[in-house]
Specification:
Length: 152
Amino acid sequence: MNTLRLLVPRIISRRASTLSHNNNATSQIEAPVVSDKLIKTLELEVRGNEPAVIKSFCKFAVTAGNHFGLETKSWSLKKPVHERYTVLKSVHIYKKHRVQYETRTYYAFLQYHKLTGSTADTLLEYVERNLPEGVALKATKVEVQEMPEHLH
């Protein structure tokens, strides 16, 4: 959790130092103000082969979102998705002698609501860096945009 506290002040201090540097410049040219993107929902899909690892990671990701002051939701599928492969024991052996391999994939979903683009990028980077081994992460952003003029 100390890493999160150290990460956020560094980013803010970099921005503050660049702003103070621009104010000391001799030219009076002002940079255009770019508004940050608004993101309605950031959804993370987590998959892996071990349910305990996924549960632990979801707890970490929810805690990280709470430290950022975000609304978070977390849920998981009750049953894993089974994939079974039936193969012959040997290429040169009778069809009766087979082996069956199985993989179980567990899923978990996390949602963060009402955040800005910079907050989403920082949160995603922090969560991705702490992703455990053997766990896949898929992120989906839903951005809020203005209505086009021709639809008003």
